[in-house]
């Protein structure tokens, strides 16, 4: 960034959300400050009442870059969803680039490349790119994510999966204001509802370039709670997202929800929760079909019922023998 840009109205706001990120925030901020742009940017740090020295780190960077960095400070914890939303609300730029405090960008041309793409095509509401997944010590766990091919996508693809990593995303400011009240109760499903809203009124572009590193820390995120938790949260997402979509998309949403219930039935059965497995399998069985076979749903329901029956029979035998 050139010094002449610092007092100008920002074209891009970089929203950095942080909670107990003192060890990693300097790396994230340095990766943003290293961006080579011919347009002004701002950095908005949303700190969710961190208990470590995250706020002190943020203030020290603001002292060095007072015309670029602003801090959204909290006196109490507001939660992950509201921290994201309120940080976005504080952003003044035409575009918002999203970055969590423990992740970082690896390409100094990232913002310039994405702005060029979005300025050249007003139909693009959301622009992402590929990322690497790395461990805390820098070991590359995955050198290119997501698995989707690069290109232009729409609402149908976004309803199938959340394929734009948040640390890669640049979106048009204001899209987040369409979020319904249930968004704040959907943690840790953070970006997916926003991406659906973006795809509902425009296009989504995935650029063919790796430009950021996501730091994977086992046990650090709610998603680390396992497959059952992930499938459950995605089912809840589908239960809610239907309310913001035209009716022509409802069948797709319900079919995708059914797939999550089918997976939930499997994982619940593995954990010995046979009654809950049967209930999930029934929900899957009642959901509409798209391209998937009715056979898989029937198999899931049959397996759930059989295992619950076996479980009840064993309990009865134990009770009779006492």
UniProtKB/TrEMBL annotation:
SUPFAM superfamilies: Nucleotide-diphospho-sugar transferases. It holds the Pfam family Glycos_transf_2. Keywords: Transferase. Signal peptide: none annotated. InterPro entries: Glyco_trans_2-like, Nucleotide-diphossugar_trans. Residues 13-173 form the Glycosyltransferase 2-like domain. This is Glycosyltransferase involved in cell wall biosynthesis.
